[in-house]
Predict the structure.
Amino acid sequence: MNKKEYQTIDEVIYSEVLDNGLQVFLLPRANVRNMYATFVTDFGGNDLSFIPRGGTEKVTVPDGVAHFLEHKLFEKEDHDAFQEFMNQGASANAYTSATQTAYLFSTTDNKEQNVKTLLDFVQAPYFSDETVEKEKGIIVQEAQMYHDQPDHRVSVGIQEAMYHHHGVRNEVLGTIDSIQSITKEDLYTCYETFYHPSNMVLFIAGGFDPERMMEVIKENQNGKDFAPPEEIIRFTEPEPTAVYEAEKTISMPVNVQKSAIGIKEDMQQIASIPQVKRVLLNGMLLDYFFGKSGPFYNDMYAAGLIDYSFNFMSNAERDHGYSLIASNAENPDAFAAHIKELLLSIKDQKLTEEAFTRMKKRKIGTLIRGMNELEVIADNYVWYHNRGMDYLQLIPIIQELTLEETNAYIEQWITEERIAVCKVIAE
Amino acid sequence: MKALLHEQTVDVCGLKLHLIPSKQFKTATISLKIKGELKRDTITSRSLLPMVLRQGSKTYPNTTLLAERLDDLYGAALSLGGMKRGTYHILETSLEVANQKYIENEDTILRDALSLLKEIVFVPKIENGAFDKEIVEREKETIRQRLRSLLDDKMSFANMRLIDEMFAGHPYQIRAEGYESDLDDITGETLYTTYQQLLQEDEVDLYLVGDLDMSEVTALVSEIFQDVLPENRVRTTKHAAVKENAAARKQIEIMERQKLQQAKLHIGYRTNTTFGDPDFAALQVFNSVLGGGPGSKLFLNVREKHSLAYYVGSGFDSLQDLLIIYSGIAPEDYEKALQIIRQEFEDIRSDQFTDQELNENKTMLINGFYADMEHAHGIIDLTYMQQLGGSTQTPEETVAAIQAVSREDVVRMAHKVEEDTVYLLTSEVSE
């Protein structure tokens, strides 16, 4: 078991890769009663084309399989895993994103037993034709719920506008039709390929004894047979740098219209700049330019172009990346035109030393705040780890960023062909 | 065993300071609460106030300067807002800052944060006895947009309509977000009058949670907050929730139609029980068995067994006699879903639940309670709720009360909770 101390932030992480390939991280905290565990597979809504384990030919599964699988994994032949966690005083959940699926629980009781339950239910699938059919009614209602939410519609619409082929274009939930077409066989194919321990990470944070916990995990894993790890081959069509469509309009019954602007990351930059710098710089720059202390916010707000709902985010993934800026907008076209103009003006701006220092301080404070929460540390640590980065070492990396490299990054950050707009207008 | 919570309070500068020292956080959380009664004629102004205050203070007169100040405090998180708690309206300002001990060469973050909080709430930008006209007009537009966009959130719309119907004429009916029709009459002057009145009459509480020292914090607060509140304050110190409950009506059904894919079936019940009542713990356990989570009767039957909904559950307001069962269903499944929901409720009344269900739900509630106590805002919410509900229960007593709830208590509570109104928001073309 490896032990890594992070002195500036007072944390210790114990880790080990088990014989079957499972990566385990333990972050014990003194004086904490709660414990949070997350078991994550590197498989999400994006992963639709791949070579199945034991196969040689590429297969393509229906949209929404990863999410469907997540729902069905809780159901066992003779019991329900939710129920089992509840019997043991834990509260469990799961989520599927474009790139990963996570099964998690938090508890103050029966900690070791709940960890075993987490490992056992995820590692023993039971899918039948009957239960797969039954789940469709529930998932279709989930999709219908989102269909009535304008914020959801605009966030899906902007991905469709930005991307030609990439899996991120598809809704994680799938469409009503694709959900209806999913079979038990699809679930098993994905399960066998992506739920091998070597494609998964277990992270536990909170009040527990790390030595004892590692033993419990090892004993559980040594009692199960797994095939040797195999490399997973996934297929993505080459994605052009330019957006698929510069403008997309969704018409639905709303009282308040919306607009979102997406900036697709340049494929060449993705290949040439380390991911950790893309993650940090995209986030910090967006925050600097569009945050409340930035050069644009006050004027846009005073002019009524944006309101309280104004928000932005960025996501720098391994093979793609984007930033989004969105708001309620009385006039979605005026909002979009204004943001686009601002975005295109950014490449000529140079940050001052003062602004750069403030930007770093803000990012460091935000990270420290997040580290209060066991869930935030665990979820982030796994995400960064799966991409070859260390979440708990971001602060020194931020401190070492230079003004020169940041200004150089700004110069090629945004170009017009990589900007798309999606509007929700009242029908 | 160590006590779960050490709350120390002291009256200082006309406000009540609550310090909850805790070594588990890397930050200090500061929360200022200003409590007044919900009134129809002031609610829109009270809802507007935090938004106007957020736009800048005397020293930091616009959002850019204010935001820069927050950045200098290591990205301190500031939030201002209003909320309804029973029949009270609470204006809450909170600031969360990194604990200075994690950052080299920093020893004034807490002092600076408290000063900034004071600036924002108590030293606003006022000229000639009025808030800045442009800011007020701009924020009126913000409220207008917010009220309209609430109409697009069907789940909150259904809840709002249900409460409208159940509490017609009662203060609880008043919407914390305000009313669009009031906006035209609000000016910088009228808003300043509301603000002064609130400083004069409302109850003010300041909470601090973190790895902090009481004597140091008390000294800082007495220095920074001196002179912010008028000396001759009339404090309306009514502690218990207003309990003038309307009698339950019997199963009134209301159906409204909009263009949507998923229908919202929300059912309102009278609990006849609020925080601080001896059988409050029984209400918590009853709600948990009925619709508290994925092990509840509603989840297991409406969702898992009959595949009728993705979300279904129940929740109650601790300070008002209200419990709501909510679900999102296909429009054509209305009758079936209603019948199953009522059946699950009847099953608890007729003692149809296992010891295991009872015990698991009690454990879940207790574990959830412990988990909340490990979040700064969870600790603040709990201690503030106790003050509002006039309860002096320690966390240990709260846990013991849940533990002591018996099967008979749950059955009795199921009879005490009465169905009042069924509200259905469904699609335009019935299928």
Remarks:
- Chain B touches chain A through 67 residues (CB under 8 Å).
- The longest strand of chain B covers residues 27-37.
- Chain B has a mean pLDDT of 91.
